[in-house]
Specification:
Shape: globular
Mean pLDDT: 89
Number of helices: 8
Structural class: alpha+beta
Number of strands: 12
Strand content: 15-25%
Low-confidence stretches: 1-37
Oligomer: single chain
Helix content: 25-40%
Radius of gyration: 20 Å
Strand order of the largest sheet: 9-10-12-11
């Protein structure tokens, strides 16, 4: 008679955004058991840290490391090097352009194309890369695509927007949503993927516009007030959901520049928005 093995599983409650959208669910096994029945790898990659580094490090002028990401990035780089996709000299904890290119090559080997092979790690590709080498925690997922505020976005972005509106006490008007390849040419591809919104400022005073930008930043968006003097567009607010794993390379670059104190435009001028503690949506929810 076989003796049943008891495995205690703790399921954290799914966190609901103020719009009622499920945006997080984690399952922790004790001990973790691999599919073959052997213990899962002891090494662990923090996906939140890796994705943050993949947005910021390619925009740095040097090879500085993203705080808190070095160990996880090193594990990813070692796995890429083991697959002959990254030279050993670039296994340094800095998720720079060489690592982005190597990760994109790995995504293509998995059969991904387009934005799914941009070099920004997604949940499935990261877990496959770690098979036999590392497990993945702090998993990020954008959720399903849906329609909200008359625009296309994903569940994570919708939850972030709803929280910002709740804090502001007002509904925001979206003039351009996400997943809009070839849409407004002045957007330079930022809306091609997920996590990006343009917001109307009609009937908003300048001080109110600044308050909206500040609130969006506080819940995890890289956001700026845009003016006609900056480009071929009307006054509006541009917001990018930090660490959205569906975002386009152009949006990734804007997030990196936001963390580095830039304005998210091609001129990379100093950030002209309100100063806040920069956080992702997940960091905001954890407080």
């Amino acid at each position: 008679m076989r003796t049943a093995r008891r495995i205690m599983v703790v399921v954290s409650a799914a966190v609901l955004g103020s719009a009622g959208v499920t945006v997080g669910l984690s399952v922790v096994g004790t001990p973790a058991i691999a599919a073959s029945g052997s213990a899962a790898p002891a090494a662990t990659v923090n996906m939140e840290a890796v994705v943050k580094a993949a947005q910021i490090d390619p925009r740095r002028p040097g090879t500085a490391l993203t705080p808190g990401a070095e160990d996880s990035v090193l594990l990813v780089e070692k796995a890429l090097a083991a697959k002959k996709l990254l030279a050993a000299k670039y296994v340094d904890g800095h998720f720079g352009t060489r690592t982005v290119d190597a990760y994109a090559a790995y995504q293509r080997k998995l059969g991904y194309t387009g934005l799914d092979a941009s070099g920004l790690p997604g949940r499935t590709s990261l877990q496959k890369l770690g098979a036999g080498r590392f497990s993945v925690n702090h998993v990020l997922t954008p959720g399903k695509r849906l329609s909200s505020h008359g625009a296309t976005m994903n569940a994570r972005t919708k939850a972030m927007l709803a929280k910002a509106e709740d804090r502001l006490g007002r509904t925001l008007t979206i003039t351009q949503g996400s997943y809009n390849p070839g849409g407004d040419p002045s957007s330079a591809g930022t809306h091609d993927g997920g996590g990006v919104l343009d917001i109307s400022v009609r009937n908003m005073s300048t001080s109110t516009q600044t308050k909206v930008v500040r609130t969006l930043r506080q819940v995890g968006f890289a956001a700026w007030r845009r003016t006609p003097s900056q480009g071929d567009w009307p006054f509006h607010i541009h917001a990018v959901a930090i660490s959205d794993t569906d975002m386009s390379p152009a949006a990734q670059h804007q997030v990196g520049d936001y963390y580095l104190g830039r304005n998210g435009l091609a001129n990379r001028a100093p950030d002209d928005g309100p100063k806040v503690r920069k956080v992702t949506w997940e960091e905001f929810r954890r407080g």
